């Protein structure tokens, strides 16, 4: 397990608030992600995890508070500016393009590899052809990295859910991120597929990418995360070592209810 406490902070969320009408989806949250770590973001349904990911990536802007990434303020930036700083994400529901091959899907994420302008692409000049070759090679390399290169020419929608999620990760790697946000990367997977994603996440971390992942499977959180933040009703419930967080009585109560609730429900049967 990585000694995360000694790593510098890469992402700092300070007293962030995001309201939707009368609901504070994120209600004054402070959280920290250290460089080079796999950081789990956990909490019951509706705790505000996806809203936080949307705030970090600029799809939403906070009503209050600050978000710092490598010393830069993100809270007023547009999604493309934030992507340019080295933050990319995957979504809770797979968002691949229909009718595109696996390789083409990954090529769409490699926008930083493109050097030729629209004019040379339109005229099919050598610079545009070299550009295309470079992007294709980079995408193929990323597919190898997620062990999906054998599917390069297949239509993405014909693949299993687990395989499609790996392709989404490859696409997100296309812009060489420093911070990769994974929103429930193992949703709908069996144990073997989920463990394979955990191992992939460790490989990416060991290659220097910091990972923030929303995960509901506590076994995976304790096995693969170096640290975690637990949210409930938009607020911080616990932060730190995954085992201690999950053992925290407040976290247990948020997930499973109070002990006497269980007794009370039993007595009603
Ligand atoms: N765009 C929106 N408009 C209105 N309310 C929203 C919006 N997005 C989220 N919410 C509300 O904010 C709260 C937090 O939702 P969010 O999706 O962030 O939780 P979550 O922890 O990701 O949940 P889950 O684990 O079920 O995905 C919920 O009450 C949700 O209904």
TrEMBL record:
InterPro entries on file: AAA+_ATPase, ABC_AA/LPS_Transport, ABC_transporter-like_ATP-bd, ABC_transporter-like_CS, P-loop_NTPase
Domain ABC transporter: 11-258
GO CC annotations on file: plasma membrane
SUPFAM superfamilies per record: P-loop containing nucleoside triphosphate hydrolases (SSF52540)
Gene3D superfamilies referenced in this protein's UniProt entry, alphabetically: P-loop containing nucleotide triphosphate hydrolases
Domain of life, source organism: Bacteria
Coiled coil: none
Any GO molecular function: ATP hydrolysis activity
Keywords: ATP-binding, Nucleotide-binding, Transport
Family that this chain belongs to: Belongs to the ABC transporter superfamily.
Protein name: ABC transporter ATP-binding protein
Species of origin: Tianweitania sediminis
Lineage: Bacteria, Pseudomonadati, Pseudomonadota, Alphaproteobacteria, Hyphomicrobiales
């Amino acid at each position: 397990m990585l000694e995360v406490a000694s790593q510098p902070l890469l992402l700092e969320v300070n007293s962030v608030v995001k309201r939707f009408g009368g609901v504070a989806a994120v209600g004054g949250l402070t959280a920290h992600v250290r460089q080079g770590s796999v950081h789990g973001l956990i909490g019951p349904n509706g705790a505000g995890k996806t809203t936080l990911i949307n705030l970090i990536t600029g799809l939403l802007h906070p009503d209050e508070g600050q978000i710092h990434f490598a010393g830069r303020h993100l809270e007023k930036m547009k999604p493309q500016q934030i992507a340019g700083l080295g933050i990319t994400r995957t979504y809770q529901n797979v968002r691949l393009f229909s009718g595109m091959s696996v390789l083409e899907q990954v090529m769409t994420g490699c926008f930083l590899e493109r050097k030729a302008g629209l004019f040379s692409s339109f005229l099919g000049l050598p610079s545009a052809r070299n550009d295309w070759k470079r992007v294709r090679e980079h995408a193929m390399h990323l597919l190898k990295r997620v062990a999906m290169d054998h599917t390069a020419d297949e239509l993405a929608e014909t693949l299993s859910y687990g395989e499609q999620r790996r392709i989404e990760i490859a696409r997100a790697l296309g812009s060489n991120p420093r911070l990769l946000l994974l929103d429930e990367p193992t949703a709908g997977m069996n144990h073997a597929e989920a463990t394979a994603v955990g191992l992939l996440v460790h490989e990416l971390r060991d290659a220097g990418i910091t990972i923030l992942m929303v995960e509901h499977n506590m076994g995976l959180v304790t096995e693969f995360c170096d640290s975690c933040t637990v949210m409930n009703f938009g607020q911080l419930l616990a932060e730190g070592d995954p085992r201690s967080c999950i053992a925290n009585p407040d976290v247990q109560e948020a997930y499973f209810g109070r002990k006497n609730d269980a007794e009370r429900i039993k007595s009603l049967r």
